Amino acid sequence: KAGVTQTPRYLIKTRGQQVTLSCSPISGHRSVSWYQQTPGQGLQFLFEYFSETQRNKGNFPGRFSGRQFSNSRSEMNVSTLELGDSALYLCASRDDGQGQTTTNEKLFFGSGTQLSVL
Amino acid sequence: QQQVKQSPQSLIVQKGGISIINCAYENTAFDYFPWYQQFPGKGPALLIAIRPDVSEKKEGRFTISFNKSAKQFSLHIMDSQPGDSATYFCAASREGGTSYGKLTFGQGTILTVHP
């Protein structure tokens, strides 16, 4: 199976712009989570989607949003970019088997999208 | 509020030595404790995980020790190899299908293993 795919790999934007990042989960995985990674704050949870619905949300402002499509692919959007939004954005998928207990806790991460805001 | 504290920030060991990374958590609702390994340019990859009903779990050269009363857990890497040089993150989440996607991570430990 192919792993979690994130596009684009690198992105450069200027303050005030908006950006959309894409994530294709492992085939069959229906849960997709997004994380922000920075040297200062480490890895922080943004939100999780399951069956096109946001299931969990972290402590980020409303400028950060996401969605999930019927094929489980997910996008996250950041509007009105700020310098502090520069980070590696990671997507992770999980086989939320709804009753299966063997592997449904394991998160599989993509390589991320490196966003630089100038 | 940092709910998972990890130490040390960086660690240097010689090839063949033991690497030990420690984590402490505050939220007693946490019930699942994974460790992730991250190489430069890659996303984190699950290394090993434990639940509080056991005090130790071993997979190859990697062992997690868990102390529920102290709310602490640690990763031991035996016979450390240069290929183990990476950043290691401890994490925690509540148990349950709706919670596993929301991990709280420690700040990370940069491990360097010298040949």
Question: Explain this structure to me?
Answer:
The complex is a heterodimer of chains A (118) and B (115). Chain A is mainly β. Helices cover 0% and strands 51% of the residues of chain A. Chain A has strands at residues 5-7, 10-13, 19-24, 31-38, 42-50, 53-57, 64-68, 74-78, 87-94, 108-109, 113-117. Chain A starts with a strand and ends with a strand. Chain B is built from no helices and eleven strands. Chain B has strands at residues 4-7, 10-14, 19-25, 30-38, 45-50, 56-59, 62-67, 72-77, 86-94, 104-105, 109-114. In chain B, the strands form two sheets. In chain B, strands 2, 4, 5, 9, 10 and 11 form a six-stranded mixed β-sheet that branches. In chain B, strands 1-3-8-7-6 form a five-stranded antiparallel β-sheet, with no helix packed on it. The radius of gyration of chain B is 14 Å and the shape is globular. At the A-B interface, strand 4, strand 5, strand 9 and strand 10 of A face strand 4, strand 5, strand 9 and strand 10 of B.
SSE blueprint:
The complex is a heterodimer of chains A (118) and B (115).
Chain A (H helix, E strand, L loop, with lengths): L4 E3 L2 E4 L5 E6 L6 E8 L3 E9 L2 E5 L6 E5 L5 E5 L8 E8 L13 E2 L3 E5 L1
Chain B lengths: L3 E4 L2 E5 L4 E7 L4 E9 L6 E6 L5 E4 L2 E6 L4 E6 L8 E9 L9 E2 L3 E6 L1
Parallel strand pairs in B: 2-11
Antiparallel strand pairs in B: 1-3, 3-8, 4-5, 4-9, 6-7, 7-8, 9-10, 9-11
Task: For this entry, give a set of tags.
heterodimer, A: 118 residues, mainly beta, seven-stranded mixed β-sheet, globular, B: 115 residues, six-stranded mixed β-sheet, five-stranded antiparallel β-sheet
% residues in beta strands of chain B: over 45%
The geometry of chain B reads as globular
**Helical fraction of chain B:** under 10%
Largest beta sheet of chain A, briefly? 7 strands, mixed
* Helical stretch tally of chain B: 0
Order of helices and strands of chain B: EEEEEEEEEEE
Largest sheet of chain B: 6 strands, mixed
